[in-house]
Amino acid sequence: MKIIAPIFFELKQGVREKTFWVVVFFFIFLLGVSLFLGELSLGDTGAVLRTVCLSSIELSALGLVIVRYTYNFYREKEFRLTDIYLSYFSAAHYIGGKLGGAIIVLFIYLFLSGFLGSLLLILNGAFKSTVFTGIYSIFLKLCFICSFVFLVCSLINSPLLSSFLVALIYLASELSYNALRLTSQAKYVFIKLVSKTLYYVLPNYHKVDLKIHAIYGVPISTLYMAEITLYTCFYVILCYFVTVTIFERKDH
Amino acid sequence: MAESIIEVGNLSKTFGKFPVLKDISLTVFEGEIFGLLGLNGAGKTTLIKSILHLIKPQKGEIKYKGKPLLPLHIYKEFGYLPERFMPPLETTAKELLEFLGMSLGANLLTVSFLLEKFNLGGKKKIKYYSRGMVQRLGLCCAFLKRPEVIILDEPTLGLDPLGQRDIIKLLLDINREGTTIFFSSHNLLQVERICHRIAIMKKGEIMFCGKIDEFKAFHTTESFEEAFLKETSHSNNEDNCPNIF
């Protein structure tokens, strides 16, 4: 019960704050741009529209996660709200509530933007049911980022640096597979080791990201979906425990 | 003689190489209003945060009713209002209290009762509150769990005289109901008016701990302000002060 309270509160605040609605409008703007790009494209208009639509969803949701949760975390700290919460909840409940709330707000945002995006695709005859798989994979990818937001915020005292670091983690996770492939032929063992470590330590977006499948209508097996969902859950829970440990050890 | 409710023993805390608390020891008794005084940077907030387990001291112990103070005691028996408190602006007081109350199983009736007692409109969003209302809400958050002890860090800071009067009146009401109040303040008049005992901190040390009359008598003055200024500004007096611990 104790963890449910902060989740609900986080959820209530999350959808009420201006950031959420600014991101929704930003997404609508991106959708307009994607429609324009679809009109301009010479090749497969449907694929272009699906690509831009899914990328818009991912980009805006990433902005929401990084901006809203990083700044909110520091705002609560600055105005001593964290201190009050910690006189009611343990660090495990506090972080758990924030993380749970963040994931639910993310889900609501993706549901809303996914609905709008799908509507646009349907109106343009570019909709494929695999788009939902793509949106789900975006959800999983951003769940990793949610857990990293709280991990980084617990470690660092600057909101700007934290946002930058989380964005960097996202980029590194996107590129780690390509980096591993590129460095597999490298001479230096150190470079190989670094790229290998990054590939295994960072979230494996190479496996989780299903946007390409969604764009070209390639169906994904349920078993594979279950596997990547389990992988995400495991990773997020691991991150959560590390965050709680760090948070408990720090002075507030 | 009342039983001790909080006992701080030989508490030390260093930030980097800078000692903020130096071997602090003090006792707060059940049912009293205890004032913690000192100039800015004396270590009052650090001491308060150490008691609440928000800061980990390097040395020393804190006891609650004679037993080591545990986080569980804080969740159940301690209310806290920090300095410069600002609640989430997009929520209402009722929602904030219900959220905090959920952790305790407090029912909606308690929340409505408290909103009335603290003279807060539950439906208005917090962003439309005045500073005085925000502070009353903070006090309400601290009181929600009906704690044994309420710890307040400069509760009247930034309030107009009317707002200060409201807060003091509420504190006295709460204390009358049996809650021990431990608070830090720069407002000497208020402290003199409501505190049963005080502690004066200077550069991380307790310079005096006891009754206000004893403090004034020690400095051979009738004025509390004068005694306080003597205590905090005279470095030569440090060795002669009655540090009872």
Provide a compact summary of the structure.
The complex is a heterodimer of chains A (252) and B (245). With 252 residues, chain A is mostly helical. In chain A, 83% of the residues lie in helices and 0% in strands.
Low-confidence stretches of chain A: none
Distance between the termini of chain A: 25 Å
Fraction of residues in helix of chain B: 25-40%
Give the class-level CATH name of chain B. Alpha Beta
Number of strands of chain A: 0
What class, by secondary structure content of chain A? mainly alpha
Beta-strand segment tally of chain B: 10
The shape of chain A is: globular
The main pleated sheet of chain A reads as: none
Oligomer: heterodimer
Gyration radius over CA of chain A: 19 Å
Distance between the termini of chain B: 19 Å
Looking at CATH, which topology of chain B would you report?
Answer: Rossmann fold
Average pLDDT confidence of chain A is: 88
Number of helices of chain B: 9
Count the domains of chain A. 1
Question: Would you list the SSEs of chain A in sequence order as H and E?
Answer: HHHHHHHHHHH
Biggest interface and its residues per chain?
Answer: A-B, 26 and 34 residues
CATH architecture of chain B: 3-Layer(aba) Sandwich
Task: List its traits.
heterodimer, A: 252 residues, mainly alpha, B: 245 residues, alpha/beta, Rossmann fold, 6-stranded mixed sheet, 4-stranded antiparallel sheet, 9 helices, disordered C terminus
